[in-house]
Each structure stands twice: as structure tokens, then as C-alpha cells.
Amino acid sequence: MATKIRLQRHGRKHHAFYPIVIADSRAPRDGKFIERIGSYNPNTNPATISLNFERALYWVNVGAQPTDTARRILSQEGVMLMKHLQGGVRKGAFSQEEAQRRFDAWKQSKVAAANAVKAKLDDDKKKAESKRLEEEKAKNNAKAELVAKKKAEIAAAEAAKKAEEAAANAEQAAEESAAEAPAAE
Predict the structure, then answer these.
(1) Which helix (H) or strand (E) holds 40?
(2) What is the pLDDT of residues 120-131, one digit of tens each?
(3) Count of Cβ atoms closer than 10 Å to residue 70 Cβ
(4) Superfamily of 3-93 according to CATH
(5) Measured between alpha carbons, how far is 79 from 36 in angstroms, rounded to an integer?
(6) CA 107, CA 159: separation in Å to the nearest integer?
(7) DSSP per position, 110-177
(8) CA–CA separation, 97 vs 90, rounded Å?
(9) Is 7 buried (19+), middle (13-18) or exposed (0-12) by CB count in 10 A?
């Protein structure tokens, strides 16, 4: 039986996630499988991969052939590197401890690179948010200035109107007092 390491498609339209399975090469893509060894979710940023490393390594060592995408995922997680290093140990090129040391060094560099990418994404997100906040503050200040200017214009117009009314009232009072004064004489 020819076994394959491949992805099954699950999820809804435009929001798929993929279990990583060991299946007979003749089985349908989403059909019967032998074992599920992990999952791949491309919807997150960066993509989320969970993998049972030991089982994946076992299946690769017994001859399961990964598809192109599965091979990329296995390489990214280090399964293919460990298979290569175990081949070197079997040939006597180096010891098991050396192989494990090389793998650990590779894994540390991989984790450091992933953390750097996540930190950069977080930093970019914070910068974009602060920039958006500054733009919003600038717009709010401009709008507040415009509102204050309109209120000042309205207050000035009301003050002018009150002054006009006061002048008219004073003029009318003066006329009334002038009209009353000759009548009293």
C-alpha cells in the first residue's frame, strides 16, 4: 500500500483549514485516512501549524511520501531535516548527539526568526494604530476649531443683535423721555 502524507480540506468557503493526514494514495482527498498527525491553518497571520513531530518522523522514515505542500510544511517544522540527520547517523558521519545539537541549533534559529516576524507585525500594527489615532486627533481638532469659529460668529451676531436692540431700546427710551418731558411742562 502506497501511503501519502497530505492535506484534507475542511472549513467553509474562503476560510479553509487543513488536517495533515496519512492516507492511502488511492483514497479520496477528504476520505478515509490512516492517521491524523497535525493541522495547518493558513487563516491566521502567520499561518498556524500544529504537528505531532514523532509520528510525522516515523511515517517519513517508513516511506510515506508527502505531497508538495505537505513536504513544505514538514520541512518548515524540521521533520525532513531530522530525517536527513538520522541518515547521517546511520551512515556514521556523526553521532546522535551531534545530530540533535544541529537540529536544536536549527530550531532555535527558526524560532528566533518567527519571533522576529511576529514582533515586526505587532510593531507595524501598533504604528498603524498610533498613526490612525494621530490622524483622528488632527481631524477632531480641525473640526473643533471649525465649530468654535462658527460659535464665535453666532455669538458675535447675537451680540451685535443685542447691541442693536439695546441701542434701539435706548433710542426709544430717549424719545419717550423726550416726549414725556415737554408734556410735563
Answers:
(1) strand 35-41
(2) 999 999 999 999
(3) 25
(4) Ribosomal protein S16 (3.30.1320.10)
(5) 16
(6) 76
(7) HHHHHHHHHHHHHHHHHHHHHHHHHHHHHHHHHHHHHHHHHHHHHHHHHHHHHHHHHHHHHHHHHHHH
(8) 13
(9) buried
Distance CA 112, CA 104 (A): 12
C-alpha cell at 110: 527558526
Q: Which residue bears the cell 491566521?
A: 44
**What are the φ/ψ torsions at residue 19 (nearest 5 degrees)?**
-70, 140
Asked if 22 and 42 count as a contact pair (C-beta separation under 8 A), the reply is no
Closest listed residue to residue 98, CA positions, set 85, 115, 79, 116: 85
Whole-structure pTM value = 0.68
**What residues does each domain of the chain span?**
3-93
CA–CA dist 77, 52 (Å, integer): 10
Rounded CA-CA distance 56/88 in Å is: 19
Distance CA 81, CA 28 (A): 29
pLDDT at position 144, please?
A: 92
Quote the CA–CA distance of 7 and 48 in Å, as a whole number.
Answer: 14
Confidence of residue 184 (pLDDT cuts 50, 70, 90): low
